[in-house]
Structure formats: structure tokens, C-alpha cells
Amino acid sequence: MRGLRCMWSSPAEHPKFTLNSLVASLLGVESGQDAVIRTLLYEKGNQKVLPYDITVAEFTNRISGLRNKLAMCGIKDEGIEVPLSLGAENRTNSNILSADPNSLSYARTPPEILRIIYGSGSEYKPGGFYPNGGGGNIAKSFLHKA
Question: How confident is the model at residue 73 (pLDDT cuts 50, 70, 90)?
């Protein structure tokens, strides 16, 4: 699932890297993958998706809307076409790189990520991709509070 990877570890677990350099490296790869996928979707943006009879662009907008709703975070996910007011520097409605109007990447908190991947809108209620809850320490910490 694009853009929802979350990594947590200590610098001691990665002696060759500082935590910041490791995260920066992972984000660089993630961003490249995201740009390739979004470019391919954008090229087909006006094509209808059968049997749903909506365009690829509308599909991406609906998926992004659902992710924003589940995360309860306002707008942190956008489809491949957006209103000019949400486009890069308010100059375009094409949206290959999902970012805020200042062209800065959106950040998600661990609870927002869990709400989306669980599909429940709650970091305390597993479901979706992880019906038994996530296996990492962060996910488990929320399950123990439920």
C-alpha cells in the first residue's frame, strides 16, 4: 500500500547508519516508487475503469478521500488530479507528486497510519490488512490500550 510504510528502530540496531540517514534513504526510495506509480496512473487518468464506469483519476480521488476520512487527518492524501487550490504552489491541477500547496510532502502519524491499514478508522480496532493487528511495538502499544 503506497505511502503507508512506517519504520521504527533505534540507532543501535543500525550501527552503520544514523536513524536519520536510514529513514532518509528509505523515504527516497519510497518517493521514487510513488512517482512512477502516480505517473502511470496520470497517463491513464481519463480512461474508464470497468465495470465501475468512473475514470482512473476519479478512482484515485475516491481512494484518497477514503484514506483521509479513515485517518481523520484533513487532507494528507490526494488523487492524481486536484483543484487548483490544492495543486503544487496553486499552479496546476495535475498531481504526480502528492504534496501540500508549498510542494512539501505530507507526514502521517503512527495512529493515522494504523487507522488506514486497519480500515476501521481507529488505531485501537484491527481489521483491513491486519485483522489481528500490527505486529510491531507501536501497533501493539495501541492494541493494549483498547
Answer: very high
The verdict on residue 4 lying in a domain is no
Check: pTM over 0.85? Answer yes or no: no
Domain count across the chain: 2
Q: Is residue 26 part of a domain?
A: no
Q: What is the pLDDT of residue 27?
A: 81
Grid coordinates in use for 7?
519504520
Q: Which residue has the cell 486536484?
A: 82
CA 120 to chain centre: 16
Asked, for residue 15, whether it belongs to a domain, the answer is: no
Examine the domain organization and report whether 95 and 44 are in the same domain: yes
- The answer to whether residue 23 is domain-embedded is no
pLDDT on residue 12? 56
In our burial notation (b when 16+ CB lie closer than 10 A, e otherwise), range 54-67 reads ebbbbbbbeebeeb
Range of the domain at 100: 33-107
